[in-house]
Amino acid sequence: MSDPIVTVDEVTKQFRDGTRALDGLSLTIPRGIIYGLLGPNGAGKTTLIRILATLLRPDSGTVRIAGFDVTRHPTAVRDRIGLAGQFAAVDDHLTGRENIAMIGRLYGLPRREANARTEQVLQRIHLADAADRPVRTYSGGMRRRIDLAASLVGRPQVLFLDEPTTGVDPASRQDLWHLVRDLAAEGTTVLLTTQYLDEADQLAGRIAVINHGRLLTEGTATELKDRTGGAVVELDIAAGQRDVTLRALEPLDAQFATDRGRIVLPAPDGPLTLRHALRLLDQADITPTDVALHRPTLDDVFLTLTRPNTTDRIAARRAA
Amino acid sequence: MTTATISRRRFGRALTHTGVITRRNLLANVRLLDVLILSTVQPIVFMLMFLYVFGGAIQGALPPAAQGEYVYWLLPGILAQSAVFGSAPTAYGLNNDRAKGVLDRFRSLPMARSAVLTGRTLSDLVRSTFILGLQLVVGVALGFRWHNGIGGVVAAIGVALAFGYACSWLMAFIGLTIVNSEAIQAAIYLVVFPMTLTSSVFLPTRTMPGWLQAFAEHQPITIVANALRGLTLGQGALPTGHTVTGETLLALAWTAGLLAVFAPLAIRRYRRNAN
């Protein structure tokens, strides 16, 4: 494998209010892939992006991008990165074209080159038609595309996308996914944070799950799913019986998955775990309205890993 | 490559980037038509209001150089006030850019660290120039005449704008330090309004109580207003013991002092600002 383009080594960042946003985090990102960074709110994803984009300095540890240290050679790093943050950082009163050309000039391109490059980028995000309208008339998805285009105009080697599709309608999300895939196919490394597990599953070649500023696990989507120990049991329960059920299934680590409105529990032993679960339900005199046993989705991986007691268990295992 | 060519190239880059940012901000001014119109009309309305509401009552208190016409007293004062008020958008503009994530984007680009603030203060300077020019025209239409030649008027506008520009750096520091935009507005009103009202902008300071007079006579907005009066109307418009040159130099000293303190502070804020 060639040299990784991003290396994060034992990085710590504590904020003035005492929150430890990053706690000895280490990661390496190989060149030319889409790397997904997953974690619940407050896990430290945005802090990491901000450190990588030279907006924040780490308290300790080192971060290198394309061989340059972010604290010692920030300008060399800035020459090689593109950033699209959580909000589309575009100027409402400028047209799409003006927004992109301006960023091109700020990347140091001479005027003619900035304009030529803007043209290319506009073609590629399929916004050439709307390019001369002020951005204020754009839809949310179009704004995101302009924002992304602006970060592309300097031909970055690494692109940081902080929740690029949050608050975007499904069709625009598909467009953005296409764009990100194309970029990676051309050799741009993309680091994206997301709250949507299907997004990471669909896009990312490798995924890191972080929580409380620490790396919980890292690998391809398949590796992550295998590592969680195979199957899960999902139960549909009448709303009134949810608490009773959770109590009955406590020995099996059952959890309520808010996004799906179901009770989920890891089934390391497959059908045997299912039988155990049903026996416990029978004893408590609870009848589920639906039962399913299936291979884990990334959601299950995420739920299992970011559950407070799992984090403690991992920490304990590390300490031992 | 020698150090000289590197630093020349660096300076060239900073200049280009400053130009790009200034243009961006000016385009915003021109394209936000409602803001443009309102922010142009407001200083004129202000001026008319003071002229006609206060004018009659104040005439007796005016120095002879004002020839009994309040507009002679008011116009140089209003120009000083507008130069200070004209710096407030620097704070709002930067705060808005920060809230929208635009500052983060700029900071992640390989651009000169000074360009965003220099560009912002320069575009606000252009705007103030336009407004002061407009007020001067309206003032002349209402009967203001200068006694010191056109050179004096140009010098007066120059002093006012220079002081306003220095205030812009103070506002840049405020805009980057206070996160909440409403708090910024409150902070600015808290400082700018009392400062202009306790100065010689609207009234001679002679009629104020002694303790206030001591402050009012020496605070920078009074000094700038005095300098503008001296430059446009001549020595006779100044309180006894003050000279046109003296007031002008003092106003420029305040300008330099504000710049020397707040430009580095604001740039430092910009560099280390983390949301």
How would you characterize this protein structure?
The complex is a heterodimer of chains A (320) and B (275). Chain A has 320 residues and is of the alpha/beta class. Chain A has helices at 45-52, 74-78, 96-106, 111-124, 140-152, 170-185, 197-203, 221-227, 242-248, 271-283, 298-306, 308-319; strands at residues 6-14, 20-29, 34-38, 60-65, 68-69, 81-84, 158-162, 189-194, 206-211, 214-219, 232-236, 255-257, 262-266, 290-294. Chain A folds into two domains: 6-225, P-loop containing nucleotide triphosphate hydrolases (Rossmann fold, 3-Layer(aba) Sandwich), CATH 3.40.50; 227-319, Alpha-Beta Plaits. In chain A, strand 12 and strand 13 (262-266) form a beta hairpin. The radius of gyration of chain A is 22 Å and the shape is elongated. Chain B is mainly alpha-helical. Chain B has one domain (17-272). The model of chain B has no long low-confidence stretch (mean pLDDT 90). Chain A binds chain B through residues 50, 53-56, 75, 78-79, 81, 83, 85-91, 93-94, 98, 102-103, 105-108, 134, 150-151, 154, and chain B through 13, 16-17, 20, 24, 27-28, 31-32, 100-102, 104-111, 274.
